[in-house]
UniProtKB/TrEMBL annotation:
Cited PANTHER family: D-AMINOACYL-TRNA DEACYLASE (PTHR46124), HYDROLASE (PTHR46124:SF3)
Keywords of the record: Hydrolase
Similarity-based family: Belongs to the metallo-dependent hydrolases superfamily. TatD-type hydrolase family.
Domain of life where this protein originates: Bacteria
Protein name, UniProt field: TatD family hydrolase
InterPro entries: DNase_TatD-rel_CS, Metal_Hydrolase, TatD-like
Phylogenetic placement of the source organism: Bacteria, Pseudomonadati, Pseudomonadota, Gammaproteobacteria, Alteromonadales
Keyword Transport: no
One Pfam family cited in the UniProt record for this chain: TatD_DNase
Length: 254
């Protein structure tokens, strides 16, 4: 299995990162993708990815948009060019739009469009953060038409919204929210959608499943989501695990 979205570089893991990785391996999660969030975070992110030989993405998250848009885009473009030949560099992102951070909306939009342009130019998929912004994100994706598509991270929307993304070549990242019985829209979507449109992620250390006592999420929790999807789709956990692993490998060319 692969956790397609885990911020293993974040400070929450500084005291016991080795143990977290060992636990992940012990339950069959053999690798993960660390998304990028900002120029200030890249150095540590890349060091952690190198230490544990994990995959990584490079991007600027809507929560961390630098004030100087041109300088931020230049920094990202230069970093991507320098790392493009690294086999563990698999995507652009985490990028996107978040209406809960409305004060930075103009910068978010500028960085998002720049990263879609970059993803297209280097032929990589994108990892997209979309909060209260599906119409705007969809409009951008229709405008840029990325050949490699990508993933809508932490998807929680309806079947109808899911199908709009699928038409554009995107998969849906399914994580801890699926364990919440009140996430009725997401549960319906995962029950009804064919498996080829889903990939697994934890968003560690955030988005801890409701049924886990430890406050911090971690990649080992991925196995819980497989069992839940198996229950919803009335299929075996082994089939779910194999199919979603195959989806991730195909999307990120692993």
């Amino acid at each position: 299995m692969i956790d397609t979205h885990a911020h293993l570089d974040f400070a929450e893991f500084d005291l016991d990162r080795d143990t977290v990785v060992q636990r992940m391996h012990s339950v069959g999660v053999n690798n993960l993708i660390i998304p990028g969030v900002s120029p200030q975070h890249w150095h540590k992110q890349l060091a952690v990815a190198a230490q544990y030989q994990t995959y990584f993405a490079l991007g600027i998250h809507p929560w961390f948009c630098p004030e100087n848009v041109d300088a931020g885009i230049l920094a990202l473009t230069s970093k991507v060019a320098a790392l493009l030949e690294c086999p563990r560099f698999v995507a652009i992102g985490e990028c996107g739009l978040d209406k809960l951070y409305s004060a930075t909306w103009p910068q978010q939009l500028a960085f998002f469009e720049a990263q879609l342009t970059l993803a297209k130019s280097v032929n990589l998929p994108v990892i997209i953060h979309s909060v209260k912004a599906h119409p705007e994100v969809l409009a951008c994706l229709k405008k840029y038409q990325l050949p490699r598509g990508g993933v809508i991270h932490a998807f929680s929307g309806s079947v109808e919204i899911a199908q709009e993304y699928i038409k554009l070549g995107f998969k849906l990242g399914i994580g801890g929210l699926i364990m919440n019985p009140n996430a009725k829209k997401l549960l319906k979507t995962v029950t009804e959608l064919p498996l080829e449109h889903l990939i697994l992620e934890t968003d560690s250390p955030a988005m801890t499943p409701i049924n886990v006592t430890e406050k911090r999420n971690q990649p080992a929790n991925l196995v819980l989501f497989i069992d839940k999807i198996a229950t919803l789709q009335k299929k075996s956990s082994v089939l779910i695990s194999e199919h979603l692993m195959s989806n991730a490998m195909q999307l990120f060319d692993l």
